[in-house]
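Q: I'm writing a short explainer about LAO/AO transport system kinase for a general audience and would like to include a description of its predicted shape. Could you first generate the structure from this sequence?
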Amino acid sequence: MSIPEELWRRFQEGDPRALARALTLVESGHPAGRELLKRVRGKGRAKVVGVTGSPGAGKSTLTDRLILEARKRGERVAVLAVDPSSPFSGGAILGDRIRMMRHHQDPGVYIRSMASRGALGGLAGATVAALSLLEAFGFDRIFVETVGVGQSEVDIARVADTTLLVLTPAAGDAVQAFKAGVMEIADVFAVNKFDLPGGERIVQELKSALELSPPRPGGWRPPIHPTVAASGEGVEALFESLEAHHRHLVEHGLLEGHRLERARFEVESVIQEWGRQRTQGAGALVARVARGELTPEEAALALLGPGPEAEEGAL
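A: Of course. Here's the predicted structure. Afterward I'll give you a sentence or two in plain language.
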């Protein structure tokens, strides 16, 4: 299906309502949305910052403050807030948009909540596709805030240029992050709500853990920033570290690798969604697996066609 020319014209002219319509087409998987993506891919180069961390860490409030810092520097900013989807209704909890309402009259800020759609990692492929639309629309910086559950931290590192992990002095928060392996993928750390007891202890634990973590590409050393998002304390220094990491990526020729990994993640997400849809309509096949008549691999082969093993055998 071709893109409505009126929509395409308005999108190119910078009409935010056309952007909203385009994002809806992409998120719903509409053929016109897919055609639109083909036109816009590679037409923008925004700085993409992933913001992740456990629920209650203050990610939305901190992102709100980072938006202010970006606007002080004249940047046009977009935010994709990935909200958890209900597994029953498919609806999302759009709380992040509420917490950033101060920017709703600023034409230089665009905030969009997107449902995770039950994606295993907390990020849907549509979220990644939306980045292409926002870049083509001309935004200078895009914040992607994740649900902070499951493997969303690992997923956001594959999508963003810079990954910001937000921790708090809350009991067990940092230890849980270490277990999840997030230490290896975060580029910048923020210990938010640093005015609460235990903030300095978290900073010391992070420093100790970073000494044991593998070296980062180009020799980058992740900085740790104490912040109090509610008052803005420490946010300017945090923003400067986000800028420093982007300069590091440019200087060491690492940005292109990030973009390729983002495309790989998007393709994998489409495959995962196709598999989920086909499995839902294959009750008889799934029942045969449950009875031991088929292996899961045989069932998957019947649903999706030859897999990697078949391709290797053909070489």
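A: For your explainer, you could say: Residues 85-96, 307-315 have pLDDT under 50 and may be disordered.
Q: Perfect, that's easy to follow.
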